[in-house]
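Async update (no meeting this week)

Hi team, since we skipped the sync, here's where things stand on the single-chain job. The sequence we agreed to prioritize is pasted below, unchanged from the tracker. I ran it this morning and attached the output directly underneath so nobody has to dig for it. Comments welcome in thread, and please keep replies under the output.
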Amino acid sequence: MSTKQVAQYGLSEIYSSPQPAVDIVLVHGLNGHPYNTWATHKPEVYWPADLLPSILEEQKIRVLTYGYDANVTAFTDGTSKDKIHNHAEHLAGRLVANRSLKKALERPIIFVCHSLGGLVVKRCLIYCRNVRHAHTERLRSVYVSTYGILFLGTPHNGAEMARWASLLQSICATMLPKKFFETSPHLIEALKSNNETLQNINRLFIDIVSRFQVYFFHESKPTDLKGTRQVIVEEDSAAPVIEGVERMGIERDHSHMCKFEDENAPGFDVVAEAIMR
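Output:
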């Protein structure tokens, strides 16, 4: 499978059993891409399509990857409007349309999210849970059908403002060229302004977390950032202790913890086994 077969925006079906029993939906994070976030390039392996189907043959899976405009402002532009909420609404709408056309609105969903993509999924589920109007009632099916969520390197603890700013800055640094920061001092201010939105999402999600089978994966290796080595999302934020939630480390850095070149790659076994359950 190649990046050309995956749409940059919206949902792409990348694999389907003849009669699927479960939908697995991948959601990338900041400056991510629905193909590149999950792919290794030497060798070229896109594990959701190349490795997962054979491992989960008995589970009869369908695999979808969701792409959206995840540039920095999508997570930082708190002044104009809540972009995370927009992405969450779009994800819900696309999922309902796709599943409705397949006559599969009640099929179980398992989300696999990397980094800040986890915040989009949380916001999506909060939004779908609160839908009450008859015209939009079917959006609630996303909330009702979601069975499991795998969070890979998602920050769950809304720490104090300064920490959010430095956290997002670090995530940006792993995804963006250094030059970007030198030319965009306003970015740091913008990062600080959106802290409230992020805290709010995490607070509201705690109310519904027990409804789902949830797995927290944290990075066990630091990322090289301009000469320093740093864990981007600390274990206490990526895998807080919550009753009924499983926590596991993956022996990779933040941007590589969601890329698996073969079945023996660090973390693939625990991620595949979590999906299998």
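Quick observations from my side:
Residues 83-101 form the longest helix (19 residues).
The two ends are 26 Å apart (CA to CA).
Reply here if anything looks off.
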